[in-house]
Protein 1
Amino acid sequence: MSVYINGTAAFISQNTLNFNEFQKGLVEYETDFLKTVPVDYKPFMTPIEARRMSKIVKDSIVAAETALKQAGVTMPDAIICGTGLGIITDTEKFLEKMIDDKEQYLTPTSFIQSTHNTVAAQIALRLKCHNYNFTYVNRGHSFESALLDSIMMLREGKRNILVGGGDEMTPHYFSVTKKTGFWKQEIVKNTELFGTKTSGALCGEGVAFFLADSQKSKSTHTELVDLKLFYKPADIKEIFDTIKIFLDANLTKISDIDLVILGNNGDWEQDKIYKTLQETIFEEVPQAYFKHLSGEYHTCGAFALWLASQIVSHKKYPEFIKANEMKTDKINTVLIYNHYSNINHSLFLLKSI
Amino acid sequence: MEDLIHNLKKQIIEALNLEDMKPEDIDAEAPLFNEGLGLDSIDALELIVLMEKHYGIKMENPNDGKKLFYSIKTMAEYINSKK
């Protein structure tokens, strides 16, 4: 059974609402972490409706409703989301109020909005959708788990699954996690990320939503042929073997891949895995990066899928994502390989329709 | 009374995250719920906490809520009556 992406929208630090605008140039940032661009919510919700929602909730609603509109779907059979951190802004607000007011005068809004399933719930409330509604919180496999669930639902005969993933970053959470060494200790330009020789990733945030269906439509961007999640591989050989088995299972050879999108995040240590692949099995394959656009976060695989869907659909990709000099005269098959902290590894295979 | 109404407007804007609104945009005599600002039951809880936090007023009888929270003016009158 095939899975088709019939609608999609994403928000990151770049202009992604329109792929043609996105291709015009990379927006350069020199900041501690990449923040999503401001979004115009007015066509989607009134200020009164928007007042309780943090940015990630509003961005997710706009992305989800845009994906639905593209696909011409008003009521999905399921809403499935993935998030690593949930609504961390409101979680912090709630906890700060508890401390500041000495556990008195606790107000409901931040608490209600801080739960991990807020996004899926808000979308359902707005659509008055009583169908399956689920949120996966599986660190670097959060979005991928949501997508896997969507694929299984389509195999069971459901139609039009709204699936998405997103995470937001706050200055407080960033400063705490920076102390672990996970993020770069120095500020780097996103345009120069892959030239750095230091440890730590470039941190980011973003959301992406998709309307997945078992049937093609006039709005279909691409076919998602297969998805593979694997956990804590023992060594690079296991990664090589997993990629090979994944491609064999989908009757695809390395030479069939027109573009491989890789999750290099600028961390000297973590990127060794990608570099090994880039210099061996993917040496002859055109390669692209995406984390200088989005930064690293638990659900950035959703943005990679948005990017791959757009590339397959438009049959082109911009210079600023190229990771090597290999060229291709067609873009029919795209592979995404991403890992989060060398723990959660993912492979997505897409083909043109 | 005017100062109290102005402060209440500012506190409501902050508590309810009415980011795009200014105190002068709110009619002190307009209904807070359904019409007017269009607030809902979650906002009512926020207003109860606001009254206790800023003015030390605890709502003892829930039935008073409808009258008390009719408008910003009725809230101000209630606060004044408790001073």
Note: The mean pLDDT of chain B is 90.
Protein 2
Amino acid sequence: MSENLFAKLTEHQLSDLAGLGCQLDGEGACLLTVPAERLLAVMKMLRDDVASSMNYLGDITAVDRGEAGFEIIYQLFSVTRGVKATVKVKVPKDKPEVPSVVSLWPGADWMEREAYDLMGVTFAGHPELKRILLDEDFAGHPLRKDFRMQPRE
Amino acid sequence: MRTQTYELNMGPQHPSTHGVLRVILELDGETVIRAKPVVGYLHRGIEKICESKSYPQVLPYADRLDYLHSMGNALGLCQTVEKLMGVEVPERAEYIRVIMAELSRIASHQIFLGSLVGECGALTGFVFAIRDRERILDLFDMACGARMTFHYIRYGGVVQDLPEGWVEACRKFLDDFDGMMETYRNLLVGNEILQARLKGIAVLSAERALAMSASGGVLRASGVNYDVRKAEPYGIYNRFDFDVPLGTVGDSWDRMMVRLGEMEQAARIVRQALDQMPEGPVMAKVPKLIKPPPGEIYHHVENSKGDLGYYLVSDGSPKPYRLHVRRPAFVNLQLLDELCRGYLLADVVPILGTLDPVLGEVDC
């Protein structure tokens, strides 16, 4: 049975995370909200830290919040310790860019490409950030709320 | 002697690509230098479509993701919405759901096994697996009137109770199931040609499998004990006694053997569920208009391909604000390139077979 990550962390580790600008929400979801520029540092700590060792990246997805910008959501899991956490990054509407986590979890490759393809979020440092599901010459990012669906001709 | 490398296109219309997958192969003679999967040929934009549909209208789309394990997909989506709404599912419905999901897992693995060995030339094995799978599809047909894309598991339970004689028919299938497994083991596991084609091929280490976010049989064949049913039991899975088959080497052979083991464990779960299943209602009191409270939730289940997750954002309206599906076959398919490198062209098809992609899910 997986447990809440925060219960496993020491005071010191928690304050380290807070020092990196994380907002911790331990109520049920175990949610960390991280500023984009600190994402890699936080992710690296979550992955390598003995108390958490989040060695499994479950999922990456993005949500369009309209004027409030985009949210990029990472699901992390520790196979060895059975703890989980959700990491969320909020980016502004006009500059949807987060650092890529492919260097930490190579499996993030296609997940980030999918989020880029459908939502138009840029993952800086991704080795091959190209469309994956749609045609290369497709215009726009369909999962954005302002995307206009065209009737078929 | 120097040879020039060349590109060979495989698919998207190719009988062994499990759908419309295209692989661009770079070859040096017969040796694979690169095998680049190109996906998206079956992309229907399900995530986008769901945003303009009401929750009951969204549910049939789940069946069409991994169409070989539809019951498991629907189970995952229903539990996601139920979790957000706080709906309590009746006991009997929980048991029926588990029975259906596990039977579906067996059927899906039979396709895996049949297509894998069929692609290696053992067409008899293919026919046997498909013949036996038909028995499970008959059971589904009896329960809900459909052989595939069932729309049987609904928000709050299942759409109707099991018909008269269903439990007996299911027990009859389980009685015959051991014989089926024996046939597979005699015919396929003991087959020298199949062993030569799969053993020691495309070895995936445990560390690499984890780093690549592989899941399901691909991950467990490398020896990583991660099964969502055990790691984070959903529904009533903590009531059943079952093992998680693990591989030791992480080669194509282990990926096949893990799936064979999973079929036996799934049958074990179904037997226990049939024994424990109580009488009672099969549908909770769910409002006619399904409007989950505003919020977001990530829920994942173990389907036949791996870790299937749903990320649902609700704004309190009758339509999902955003529904994202974490598709295990999509994530697993990334491994194709590195697993094929250095092996022969003839190995590409079985390696792809052991990754077990279903393009309906990969392309979403």
Note: Chain B touches chain A through 35 residues (CB under 8 Å).
Protein 3
Amino acid sequence: MKPVIWLILRRAGFGFLTIIVISLIIFIGVELLPGDVAETVLGQNATQETVEAFRKALKLELPPHVRYRVWLTDFVQGDFGRSLANGREVSGLIGWRFANTLFLALTTAAIAIPLSVMLGMMAAFYRNTLFDKVISITTLSFISFPEFFIAYILITLFSVQFNIFPSMANINESMTLVAKLHAILLPALTLTCVVTAHMMRQTRAAIINVLASAYIEMAELKGIRRLRIIMRHAFPNSLSPVINVVALNLAYLIVGVVIVEVVFVYPGLGQLLVDSVSKRDIPVVQASGLIFAGAYISLNMMADILSMLANPRLRQSQTS
Amino acid sequence: MNLLIKSPLSARIGLCIVLFNIIVAIFAPLIAPYSETEVVGDVWEQMSGNSLLGTDHLGRDLMSRLIFGARNTIALAFITTMLSFLSGTTLGFVAAVKGGWIDNLFSRIIDIIMAFPTLIFALMILSVMGSSVMILIVTIAILDSTRVYRLARAVAMDIEVMDFVEVARLRGEGLWWIMRREILPNAMPSLVAEFGLRFCFVFLFIASLSFLGLGLQPPLADWGGMVRENAGAITFGIFIPLIPAAAIAFLTVGVNLIVDWFLHLASGMHN
């Protein structure tokens, strides 16, 4: 078999295995609840009937391994059970919010990826100049700031002082795309600041790494123009690490979204998760946790696979 | 001392910030004008002689809560980081020195934990176990120790192949002795820089959890929680939630400046 395909299959297999193990951990987590789940969640003075109904709803009368199988098959088929807090279908609660979270994440990605790759390249080419230092200090401070600090600074500036953008990103299905984008601009900007800082620093490091190689020096000594060196020699080889950086930061974005959603009261999956954790609404926590984990693991996997594909050395070894 | 004199300006600023925070945290009861929970005025009062930074959403003195918050937040993050380093380096060193199936087993388990987003993992554990200081510390320490493990193992692997470790082995020294007397002193420079980075991460992580209402529980003051409690003020044009958030940012920037200098020193580029 071709080695690169074999490598990819192995990586995909590991990713799949991880998701299975994670689902087991999420499932066992509920089993570990001290005492009886029903009594813990419902409280001391629950009547016999409510406890029975609760046990039935969570299928607690079945043995654990059967319950795990039923839970996982239901989950794969899109049936996440019912919320403990209001008895509604979890899939109904999650579907719309998940789309909102994706919308926010994709908008951020559309701003952040081109911006940070460009800034990273520029910082690498003009390294140790004033431009590089200013960028380095700015990104270092953005990394040190908690997300909500950036969020509140943006709110103070844009919604309190100038009143251009709303401080609450309230969106619903009847809004037009432009209205939606206007509403989520501040949360998207907050996320952009955080993600760009990480992405740009890693891009800079990756490109400097390539620029330090012997073949770049050789090209320079041959007197090839700078632009040509960058396009023909440096860019193809830095593609693999840069793609890796981008995909890894998208995974980070999926999680970073949680806090920003809470700040802007955005109706997304992250806010639902946080609400459900404080209400201890376990079916919702399980479902949204598994979705977040699945997205995170798949993006990490994609990062690895894409950088394998983009690596010229791995591609060429196909012929051997 | 000589090192300190030659240090760059950024590192000195960082050092001042960190020292300032530590002093405030240690002497909190002496410095703070009021106690942590005392109500001194109306809700969200402006800055005045009575309360230097104004009052919070319950009319408590913001300055005093900020000072006590420094104590709670920094202590919590410090204890958690210590715990994470203790377990992470011990496991990492054992894996490096022993090798074989122990190394494989540890590394696979750590791989799986690291494949799971930290914040989501912590939220799931807190939803099942409820939020208390003990659970908070243990959960975050375990999640964070995976990163420490990776570094400790990698560093120890490099040291383990050195002659002096071989000599100690031939002398018949035990695992514990090799780890503590041969590997630890040589791994120290990398571990110290990492400690700063991990502290920042843990500190921001706890602040985020508190901000989500799942960290330290009120009436204890902590910076993340203070931002959450006063978040409503911002729409009235009162900037109170920005103050504790800025305090968090201030300390992490300080620690990062020191870490940067340390990494610079460790990479040998200072000449």
Note: DSSP finds eleven helices and no strands in chain B.
Protein 4
Amino acid sequence: MSTPLLTARDLTLRFGRIAALDGVGLEIHPGEVVAIVGESGSGKTTLLRVLSGLMRPDGGEVSYLGQDVLGMSEAARRRLMRTEWGFVHQNPRDGLRMAVSAGGNIGERLMATGARHYGNIREQAAHWLTRVEIDPARMDEVPAKFSGGMQQRLQIARTLVTLPKLVFMDEPTGGLDVSVQARLLDLIRALVADLGLAVLIVTHDIAAARLLAHRMLVMRHGVVVESGLTDRVLDDPQHPYTQLLVSSVLAA
Amino acid sequence: MTISLATEGLSKVFRLFLQGDVRIPVLADVDFAVHPGECVALTGPSGAGKSTLMRCLYGNYGAGSGRILVRHRGALVDLAAADPMLVREIRRETLGYVSQFLRVIPRIGARDIVAEPLRARGVAPEAALARATELLTRLNLPPRLHGLPPATFSGGEQQRINLARGFAADYPVLLLDEPTASLDPVNRQVVVTLIAEAKARGAALIGIFHDTEIRDQVADRLFEVLPIQDAA
Amino acid sequence: MSGYNFAYLDESTKRMIRRAILKAVAIPGHQVPFGSREMPLPYGWGTGGIQVTAAVLGPTDVLKVIDQGSDDTTNAVSIRAFFRRTAGIATTESTDAATIIQTRHRIPERKLREDQILVYQVPIPEPLGRLEPRIAETRRMHGMADYGLMHVKLYEDIARHGHIATSYSYPVMVNGRYLMSPSPIPAFDNPKMDQMPALQLFGAGREKRIYAVPPYTSVKSLDFDDHPFRPIRAPHACELCGSRDTYLDEVLTDDVGGRIFVCSDTDFCAERQAMKEAAE
């Protein structure tokens, strides 16, 4: 059995009287896609922010390959964030530099980790644009000229260019049209499989979770009420809330 | 005799919280075993729990109680107690499942869907695609369809893709849920041959066959799943 | 001039500024905040540079002030006059004779020495400011040497113009650690900062920051392996002294397109002209 990449134990976090996280624990192994599902306000985005070190919990532990994420210096955490980790935001504007060209957006992580050859950076940018199905001829355009779906694909290219081990995704298909969502989901599925990425994806889209995730955690009121293999959780839900969630999905 | 897959005291009760916590028992104390090179057909009236049993055997439904033993990497492993990582590993290497309906993935062509289980095991793309083409051809899927996403294919075409996917990977244990329901006589016979070949290489198969003629051709034994009286 | 302390600022203010300078020298390239005072001239006229000069000036110092290389523009003349009146010190237009040189937007052509101090007037000390408007974030980036963004700017230059189009305020790495704005000197002057024997002090009055490059410190202009930094000058000879290796200003001579190129460093140019005359 492989060693987990990321392990969290007993995470608690309160916002006033509301428990955003109440004793949450989880593990993610290399190459594993884990979905966190639940309705808005269930604590899933908070969990993502705590696991990625963006937010401090009141209690609990998070460790990444044996390193204590919560006790880590900000410098060390940032280094992780631009090398072995990636974060894909729901709104591409939060993850892209809108005034910088597509090529510059993809190149930033490379340059931040020491790439100093312009030609190689361009080559990498073209390669990644192709992988996310954007015409490399548009490399020098700014993302403001791109559609929402393209912006999101660009954000993914920008994140994956350093071949991270672990990618956090917060509702990556959130603001997109349904037809665009399908293409993006499929793209994420293919990239994740090809690159062997571990992904922690927060979504309220059950169909997306079924397509992408090997394993699933169902959250409600800051508590993980059920977890397990994606198909088992969805086809044989054991918790009343999961049954409600699954039965609320319209069959296509 | 070596066991490929066995259940011990397998029971399954569904709890439906949305219907006021109704409890529906479906399986009670199911004990059976399948050996290498053998095909066991599940029989019993409609609604007796054949499909539920099948899904429990694949880990798609959690077992309520009892054990599900699968010979995986040479040893018997209790699937009912395995963690998700181990279940995934068992599904990748040991346990295949051909369901009645193909779960279509957007934009993925038929050949890639069939090759996917081999690719997941680390087989090189060319070899995996060659094997996929071989099976799709045997199941008489026209070559012009091999590269197309099957979302718009007919039921019979989709079922053949499902079968090709199940048989391409040479699983030691293969579960078949109504594998011939939408097939024409020619392709039914192809399935009969594929099952015979799988048995010959030592695979253990468990199937639900609606079609008794096919069932009699492939099954070495029958196992009857009996409906249980409502205990609620 | 009576009623004023030596060099205008009171001693405790000078002490405060000197402390900031010491810290800046100890952490080359790092911006140190200081309590910038109101000066009797507007922001943008060199209030930061004047405060630094006032803090390091002694009665025996000889002060030179240049603006874009020239000793005789209003700004340079006024600042020299200011210190003559408030400190009673000697001033000069000769780079060689000066002990302190306050500058706006140039480094003199003549090589500076260990016994000299070069004081830069800085309008915008933060090199990352245009790319990252949040000050807290730029400080964090400096703290963690997280400078990928600066290369993104250069990347964008090349992608847009085919070469690095930044021709002044060209960002540098100091001592391999801090990213620094060299103030709006031409990129042509950047190489002069590297391993300079003289102490270099930078004062930004409006932004209330002081930073420094100690003598003999590494100062490298950012670039790419396949687009190396190139100090650019107009491809002409000085009309007055014939120099082909100094930074030139373009001067319009009439309103029908006539123009000449002359050295921007007036003292250096005058010296060369005198040498030429003597030789003839």
Note: The first helix of chain B runs from residue 50 to 58.
